[in-house]
Design brief:
There is one protein chain. The protein has helices at 5-23, 38-61, 77-95, 97-100, 102-117, 122-143; strands at 2-3, 68-69. By secondary structure, the chain is mainly alpha-helical.
Length: 158
């Protein structure tokens, strides 16, 4: 599927407006020059800039093209299955998030996708995905102080 760059530009501009509106509602931090709204506001400015660039570039380079069109890849069944696996797997991961926990759920999801995209080589995918998921969990838990759900691994590791 080919989507006009202007469509993404408009979506980014809308997202920038939403993020900026939400960020301005954050309370200021007493005694600080910069509060919790600084980073989201900078992010919104970056979204707005990228949105404007996409919109302008799309209006110039894609004049006369439809806003969306199916291309050759959609006719191949394997590519449609790949898209369904990415989206469906993510929905399944979200549904089972608390029950499976991050490490198990993300490792299964990432290994399934990587193995599929590596042409069925699931063992190498697992050897990369499992340590990566542990590292991500460790970074969230220890560095960012945001505990991710542990599922059946509760209490078994750090």
């Amino acid at each position: 599927m080919r989507i006009h760059d202007g469509v993404f530009g408009v979506l980014l501009l809308l997202l920038a407006g939403f993020v900026l509106r939400e960020a301005t509602g954050f309370p200021p931090m007493p005694g600080q020059r910069f509060g919790p709204s600084l980073f989201p506001s900078l992010l919104a400015a970056g979204f707005a800039l990228c949105g404007l660039l996409l919109l302008a570039g799309g209006l110039v380079s894609e004049r006369g093209r439809p806003l969306a069109s199916l291309e050759g890849w959609a006719e191949k069944g394997a590519r449609v299955v790949d898209v369904a696996l990415v989206v469906g797997g993510l929905v399944l991961l979200i549904a089972l998030w608390q029950r499976l926990g991050f490490v198990i759920g993300a490792t299964l999801y990432a290994t399934a996708l990587a193995g599929r995209f590596l042409g069925g080589r699931y063992l190498p995918a697992l050897l990369v995905c499992a340590p990566a998921c542990f590292a991500i969990d460790w970074a969230f838990r220890r560095l960012l102080l945001v505990p991710l759900p542990q599922g059946p691994l509760t209490g078994l590791y750090w």
